[in-house]
């Protein structure tokens, strides 16, 4: 007889108090249930139950085996459920948070691809530069740029968020030429208040990193607003490439100090620890790691 079936009958017999009760619970006859327990004892070569016409009780060996068998059956059930979840079709609603610029210019198109591949999934994308609380605010997954704090969440590192230093032709024409990042101290910088970029910009050349304290008259938490100000000639902009790529190609903005590479901003996805991750979330994480994983 199947060993796991025999273990299941034995565990149910202990939990329900009799072989007949276990047989009813498992939808088998009492005779079959009794045979399975007998087969298990023969296989193990030890008596598990003291049985009389009126009552039954565990032997010392039976008591030990019951605890082990109960754990094994629980692990088997969890493994079967896990495999069933993997095989099931991703469906349902995903609630996602992401930074505004990344969400608008990068993530939105990726989500469209994901929805075409998994048509039974719905996505609610919330764009904010605020650090949201994944658990308290009911998100399934969060995209976060910059350094992470220890939150107890699972984090996966994505490809860095490439930054570009640029300004309008008008600004470049009517202001002092920049020879190196230190010259930014004497220029009007457009300040992004969401991250460490509001006080300091860092660059790399020949494996040497240069950090410069910056200042400016225009501060905002919107990269799009800073982009418009840069095109209008207000100052020098340091923002993601995806935000300004069309402006660079059209000539509305010109890259400055191209030999100095801005230190890119890290990007992570965060999600909660869950041994039984729903297929909708697992499929999205796998999709994102294919697109942006390192």
From TrEMBL:
Residues 1-59 form the HTH lysR-type domain. Belongs to the LysR transcriptional regulatory family. It comes from Acinetobacter qingfengensis. Keywords: DNA-binding, Transcription, Transcription regulation. This is LysR family transcriptional regulator. CDD domains: PBP2_CrgA_like_8. One of its GO terms (molecular function) is DNA-binding transcription factor activity. The keyword Transcription applies. GO terms for biological process: DNA-templated transcription. It holds the Pfam family LysR_substrate. The keyword Transcription applies. It comes from the Bacteria. The lineage of its organism: Bacteria, Pseudomonadati, Pseudomonadota, Gammaproteobacteria, Moraxellales.
């Amino acid at each position: 007889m199947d060993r796991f079936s025999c273990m299941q009958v034995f565990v149910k017999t202990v939990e329900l108090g009799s072989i007949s009760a276990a047989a009813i619970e498992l939808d088998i006859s009492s005779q079959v249930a009794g045979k399975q327990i007998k087969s298990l004892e023969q296989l193990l070569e030890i008596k598990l139950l003291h049985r009389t016409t009126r009552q039954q009780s565990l032997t010392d060996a039976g008591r030990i085996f019951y605890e082990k068998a109960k754990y094994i059956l629980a692990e088997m059930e969890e493994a079967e459920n896990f495999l069933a979840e993997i095989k099931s079709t991703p469906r349902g609603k995903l609630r996602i948070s992401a930074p505004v610029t990344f969400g608008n210019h990068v993530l939105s198109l990726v989500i469209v691809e994901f929805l075409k591949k998994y048509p039974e999934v719905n996505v609610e994308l919330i764009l904010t530069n605020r650090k949201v609380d994944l658990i308290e605010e009911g998100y399934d997954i969060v995209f976060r740029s910059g350094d992470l704090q220890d939150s107890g969440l699972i984090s996966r590192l994505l490809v860095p968020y490439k930054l570009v230093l640029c300004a309008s032709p008008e600004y470049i024409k009517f202001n002092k030429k920049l020879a190196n990042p230190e010259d930014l101290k004497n220029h009007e910088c457009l300040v992004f208040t969401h991250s460490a970029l509001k006080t300091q910009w860092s660059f790399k050349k020949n494996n040497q990193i240069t950090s410069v304290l910056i200042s400016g008259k225009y501060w905002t938490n919107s990269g799009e607003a800073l982009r418009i100000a840069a095109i209008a000639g207000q100052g020098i902009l340091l923002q993601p490439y995806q935000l300004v790529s069309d402006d660079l190609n059209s000539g509305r903005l010109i890259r400055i100090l191209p030999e100095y590479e801005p230190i890119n901003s890290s990007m992570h996805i965060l999600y909660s620890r869950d041994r039984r991750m729903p297929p909708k979330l697992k499929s999205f994480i796998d999709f994102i790691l294919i697109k942006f994983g390192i």
